[in-house]
Specification:
Flavocytochrome C3, Chain A, domain 1, 17% strand, 32% helix, binds succinic acid, Methane Monooxygenase Hydroxylase, Chain G, domain 1, 14 helices, 3 domains, FAD/NAD(P)-binding domain, single chain, alpha/beta
């Protein structure tokens, strides 16, 4: 497929190529029906189509696919419990009810999930799940297998695949998103126009020095929305995965939660167990941070020596361990928490529509309300496939206006569901899409930003640590100059934009809830059962500084 110098206009332009974006793309493109060609669809991505965080996802897809003991009600209850009071129950109901159908569609598309000797799908259990319900592929190579099938299908069906294109900012005309400005692989910035622009740009693990996310996870979509004043929420809730391998490789190799689901144990420096291995991730990561602080160490241990047939069940993890001389059948594995998933993002309704007509968001970039304050394990590939499909259905219909449902309910003034309130924060400065500097300056500044965020806004935060992080970010801002469009500079601008928003939310939320832990406010406070929103309109009063509107 050749790429025109000025591609578009498209009916739909999808930004990003992970499970969410491609689940939408394969539905929106497709062959001609009755001689009528499908509306034009472009997929724009800053790397290669297959180069997304999805391919790193290990554990799997949580979905109730059978088994007498399980039910979607239980999956709903587990998701709500992990989300610590901030899930939109209607969004979660959709997630758990529509998930099984999406998994079956992937199987039809050619995804090969692992099966028992009987031929039935093999189901794993992970933290926070009351039942085994996680389907997986290649042991713990689920994302790579899902991505393979979706990438193949997208190449076959999309009108244009723009690889190596970096989206800089939204183009807004007459109160509507009509495209993006973008940096092609070679040449000056151009506008790519579309009737519908879909943010599917993933998460932002690169805000931190230690992350399981690939280098591309720089929060680009959330930053673009923040700069345009489109509502974003829950960005203070960054999930740290407890069992990243403590090793210099970056992204940090993940030791899937499925290992704990199969019986692997967490041990401290003295070899003692100290937390329920199958508690939700926020609980486990906090317990690890506390134990590491007590013992003055930077890592703990995962003991998988009791697992049978480790290399056969988890071949990818076994190969990665073997490459650094570790044998999980005999060695305890060094581990420490690493930034893994952004639970919040661009606020959407139950169909992926944002507050800005023409702009949609799906997957990790979005805040649909399904994750609340802490995502349940293996609900993220699921979210991408469920909401990617819903978005495609909605765009294909004649209902395109954002509605007061899901997380967008609060922002658009709908009746709050289950008492979840909304507080709009004062606008953070709108940062630039790109800064000047040489590539090495930019790499150094990115490193400084990551160190500031890791030191001050990691697993456990306090007013003092967040202030220190804000100072570190301000130093990075001071070192940046004028606009110069380059991918590295644009990514740094996006990281700074999101860091500002995250720190503002984290400083405002003076409680501990889900993935946001404050050592100076260790209790959960019912008054903070509200979304902290940047941009858009508050549902119940003027912006509040410092405390919740009670
Ligand atoms: C894992 O396999 O532990 C990661 C899966 C997820 O992030 O949900």
């Amino acid at each position: 497929m050749s790429t025109p110098a000025r591609p578009g206009p498209f009916h739909v332009l999808v930004l990003g190529s992970g499970v969410a974006g491609l689940s939408a793309a394969v539905r929106l493109a497709g062959p001609a029906h009755d001689g009528v060609a499908a509306p034009s669809l472009g997929v724009l991505t800053k790397g290669a189509l297959s180069q997304s965080a999805t391919r790193w996802a290990q554990g799997g897809v949580a979905a109730v696919l059978g088994g007498d003991e399980d039910s979607t009600d239980l999956h709903l209850a587990d998701t709500l419990a992990a989300g610590a009071g901030l899930c939109d129950e209607e969004a979660v109901r959709i997630l758990v009810d529509e998930g099984p159908g999406r998994v079956h569609e992937l199987i039809t598309l050619g995804v090969e999930f692992d099966r028992e000797a009987t031929g039935l799908l093999a189901l794993a259990r992970e933290g926070g799940h009351s039942r085994p319900r996680v389907v997986h592929a290649g042991g713990a190579a689920t994302g790579a297998e899902v991505e393979r099938a979706l990438v193949d299908a997208t190449y076959r069906t999309a009108s244009a695949v723009l690889e190596g294109w970096f989206a800089l900012d939204l183009v807004i005309e007459g109160g509507r998103c009509v495209g993006v400005s973008a940096l092609p692989p070679h040449g000056p910035v151009v506008e790519v126009r579309a009737d519908h622009v879909v943010l599917a740009t993933g998460g932002a693990g690169q805000l931190f020095s230690v992350t399981t996310n690939p280098p591309e996870s720089t929060g680009d979509g959330v930053a673009m929305a923040l700069r345009a004043g489109v509502s974003t929420a829950d960005v203070e809730f960054v999930q740290f995965h407890p069992t990243a391998l403590h090793h210099p490789a970056m992204p940090r190799p993940l030791l899937s939660e499925a290992l704990r689901g199969h019986g692997a144990l967490l041990r401290d420096g003295a070899g003692q167990q100290f937390v329920d291995e199958l508690a939700p991730r926020d609980v486990v990561s906090r317990a690890m941070a506390a134990r590491m602080a007590e013992q003055g160490t930077d890592h703990l241990w995962l003991d998988a020596t009791g697992l049978e047939r480790f290399p056969q069940r988890f071949p990818t993890i076994a190969a990665s361990l073997s490459s650094i001389g570790l044998d999980p059948e005999t060695d305890w594995l060094p581990i420490a928490p690493a930034a893994h998933h952004l639970s919040g993002g661009v606020v959407t309704d139950l169909w992926g529509a944002t507050a800005l007509p023409g702009l949609w968001a799906i997957g990790e970039v979005a805040c649909t309300g399904v994750h609340g304050a802490n995502r349940l394990a293996s609900n993220s590939l699921l979210e991408g496939m469920v909401f990617g499909a819903r978005l495609a259905e909605r765009i294909a219909s004649s209902h395109h206006e954002p509605e007061a449902s899901g997380a967008l309910r609060a922002v658009l003034g709908g009746v709050p569901l289950n008492g979840i309130g909304c507080t709009t924060l004062a606008d953070a400065p709108r940062r630039w899409a790109a800064g000047s500097g040489t590539a090495s300056d930019i790499a150094k500044l990115r490193d400084s930003l990551q160190r500031a965020m890791t030191g001050g806004a990691g697993v456990v935060r306090s007013a003092a640590s967040l202030d220190a992080a804000a100072e570190g970010v301000a130093d990075v801002v001071a070192a940046l100059g004028d606009r110069t469009a380059s991918v590295a500079a644009g990514e740094l601008g996006n990281l700074v934009q999101l860091a500002d928003a995250l720190l503002a939310s984290a400083r405002t939320r003076t409680e501990t809830r889900g993935a946001h832990a404050r050592s100076d406010h260790p209790a959960t406070d019912a008054a903070w059962r509200r979304r902290l929103v940047h941009g858009g309109l508050p549902v119940d009063g003027a912006p509040v500084d410092g405390g919740p509107a009670r």
